[in-house]
Structures are given as C-alpha cells and as structure tokens.
Amino acid sequence: MVVQGAASQEFVIDDSVFQGTVLGPPLWNTFFADVSVPAASTGGQEAVFADDLDVFQLFDRLASEDTVLQKLSVCRERVHSWGRTNRVTFDPDKEHIVILHPSDSHGEPFKLLGLMVDLDLRMQTAIDQLLSKIRPKSTAILRTRGYYSTADLITQYKTHIWGLVEINCGGYFHAARSLLDKVGQVQINFLRKLGLTEKEAFLEHNFAPTVLRRSIAMLDVLHKRVLGVCHKSFERLLSWRSTRFDLPRDCGHNKQLYGHRLEVTHERTLFFRSIFAMVDVYNNLPQSVVDAKCIKSFQQKLTDIVRERCQADKASWQLYFSSLSHGPDPGPASI
C-alpha cells in the first residue's frame, strides 16, 4: 500500500480482500448469497444490497400482531444462526422488526438505503428531514444574489438542491400531495425571490417544476423496466400487460405494462399515489416516446411534450404526467 509516496511493508494476502478493491464486491456477493435461504425460510422475500439485508413478508390483513412478530423473530434467529456458522456478525443497532400498515403498524421509523421510512408509509419523517436540508440551502443561495446572475443562481440551485430532492424521490413519491407540495414550494419560493414564474424558468432556463421532474423520474423507472435495464426486483414487480402481442386496439402503444387499478379494494388513495398508478400514464404515452432507446432520449421526449404545452399556456401543464392530474385538459393518466 502506498499513501502520499510512503509505502508499507510487503505482505501476502492469504484469506482476505481489502475493502474498496475491484475483487471485493463479487467475492462478498458470492460469500453472502446463501443468506437468502434462512431469510426466506418463513415465507418472506429477501432483498440484498451489498451487505444490507432486508426481508419483506406479506401477511393476511386479519393476522394478529403476535403472530406476525413471532414469525419474523423466527426468521431473524435463523439468519443469526447462519451468521454464526459463517462468521458474519449483524449490527444490532441496525436491526429492526417492524409491521408496515396505515393504521396498525408496529415498531419505530427506520432508515432504508438512506431514506427514513414511517411505518404508516406516510413519509412525514423523510420529507421533514428533506425540508430541513433544502430550505437553508435555498436561502443561502439567494443571499448571493448581489454577486451572481439569475442563470448562475439557478445553476447553483440545480447543483446543490436537486440532488437532495431527487435521490430518494422514489421512496416518498406516494406521500400525500400536501407533503409533496411543501417540497415543491421551496423551488417556487426560490423563483419568486428571483422574480421568475415557473413558466419563465422552464422555458428560459430549463428549470422544470419539482412535480414534473418527480413524475418523469417515475416514468424513467418504468421505461428502464421496458428496456430491460432495471433491477430484477422491478421485473417481478412490474409485469407485462397480457402477452404484449394481444393488446386492445385502443392502447397507447405496444409496450404495455400491467396495471392493477381494477384489483385494488383497500387503501385505494395510497395506490393512486404510487408508481403503480403511473403505469397508466406510461401505457398512454405516444409510441414515439416509448420507442426511445435510452433514458436520456426518453426524458428529452417527455420534456419536449410538456414544453409545447407550457408554450401554449395549457392549464396545469406542470401536472401533465402526474397520476393525480384532473385538470380540464387532462394528461395521459386520464385519457
């Protein structure tokens, strides 16, 4: 090892791999792969990301809390037993047994891949934490107005705030509109201080509204699934509609994903705020859009559609790709 020109003594690596090496991740994945056996032993579905292990299991709505917790505890003990056999230690501070439910939840909010998750899935904690980060940054950028042009200030906003807003937007996408509006309001207030409308910012500075970027981001996920470049879990979650070759004549295009709208009998409000409702939006996109061979081209086509509507002063152009759009000139979700 060499650090700033100083080399350590040479030694032979017999049975270990330094963290950060190219060989490390595939070796760890191979070593850790069979943890899926105890993780799924009680009927759950494991999800592994590097050394992060999550096990999700569905239960009947009428199952008692004691029954659920007992089964999850058995799963955890079996995973721990695998760890003892394979000399893998699980950090107890990062372990959680929780029940996710809108009203009958159990446990404490937990962090999943950097995102705080409320057990009722309202995502209040995540959005509160996001607002605590982006509001001060927006204020700090505005304080430099005397030194930078409007274009420079917008560039700073894109650089320092958009990443924070969008890194976990897939996790809080289903939050209530009243919460999501708080996130969007930060950008609206920023523009108001600069003397710009959302339309001017979009057309002159390519500064799209938060709700529009969020909707396009979810459509990006669906298009990645269509292109076959998404994680395998999304392929299981988002199946094709029928056989793709037996489609109704009035469908939007020939790359239809399966929607679950007619099957939803409980928590319909939550469903229609989720990515599953965005399947209807995707299925009604023009053929030329879904034929895009890459995500960059797909995004550009979607942006161009909204830009035309914005230039034509169409009502609620910001919400055109939103699954919640119910304006007088509805977007694809309502066609």
Keywords:
335 residues; mainly alpha; 3 domains; two-stranded antiparallel ribbon; 14 helices
Walk me through this protein's architecture:
The chain has 3 domains: 13-97, no CATH class; 124-207, no CATH class; 212-334, no CATH class. Helix content is 47%, strand content 6%. It has 14 helices and 6 strands. The chain has helices at residues 24-32, 36-39, 65-86, 124-142, 150-166, 169-172, 177-194, 198-205, 210-227, 232-237, 268-271, 275-283, 287-290, 295-311; strands at residues 2-3, 6-7, 45-49, 52-56, 110-112, 115-117. The strands form 3 sheets. A two-stranded antiparallel sheet has the order 1-2. α4 runs parallel beside α7 (177-194) and α9 (210-227) packs antiparallel against α14 (295-311). The chain is globular. The termini are far apart. The model is unreliable at 326-331 (pLDDT under 50).
